Amino acid sequence: MGTAALTRCGARPLGAHLFPVWPGAAFAATALPVRCAPGDNLALHVAVAQAAPGSALVVDVAGEPEYGYVDEILAVAARMRDVAGIVIDGCVRDVGAIARCGLPLVSAGVSVREPSHDAGGAVGQEVLMGTDSLPTPVRRGDWVVADDDGVVCLPRGRVAAIVADAVDSVSRDQEVLDALCSGRSTLDVLNLDPSRVTGWHGRAVPAESSAERAG
User: Fold this and answer.
1) Rounded to 5 degrees, what angle do the CA atoms 28, 161, 13 make?
2) Shortest CA distance to 51 belongs to which of 116, 109, 103, 119?
3) What is the per-residue pLDDT across 180-206, written as a single tens digit (0 to 9) for each?
4) For the whole prediction, is pTM greater than 0.85?
5) I need a surface site. Which of 6, 25, 32, 196 has the fewest CB within 10 A?
6) Where are the alpha helices (DSSP H) in 102-185?
């Protein structure tokens, strides 16, 4: 299921500022929360060393994003230990090397500033992702899903229900797409009221078929 469909059905977005480092980076996995000390990535090294295969790291950087917390070395280490992906509310560096190693990584940006490796942090404790005005808690055992649209959290205990609703939602979307491909308008298919829009002249322009466009 894509993150858009999951969000529509109850998944919690982790922030519109978070995007995959490389196109096509996607994963769905249980979360291992990580809290870094500001400007320090020691907790990330600890998390990679003890993460269960197939899990994903969800990393809070204590409001200090302008460091490259994940680099090529950490990315390769994570791949070698079968970490499914990393979501970090901060910056990364060595983005070309990260893409080449194939680690799905969602971040807030890129920074060449190197962090320190000695200030502590925490692994396995709840973290808050997103913005101060709209924080999303992520706990160990929640699910995180990332794709080209962003990243969302499915709280443990609600995963099955959210996914089931998303399956139904995607099926309904396909019915709409099929109707649009047959020539109907979104106004008709979605039962929208065009009279609310200034300039509506009372009819939709008929869609051309592929054959008509080709001719």
Assistant:
1) 50
2) 103
3) 999 999 998 999 999 899 888 887 777
4) yes
5) 196
6) 159-181
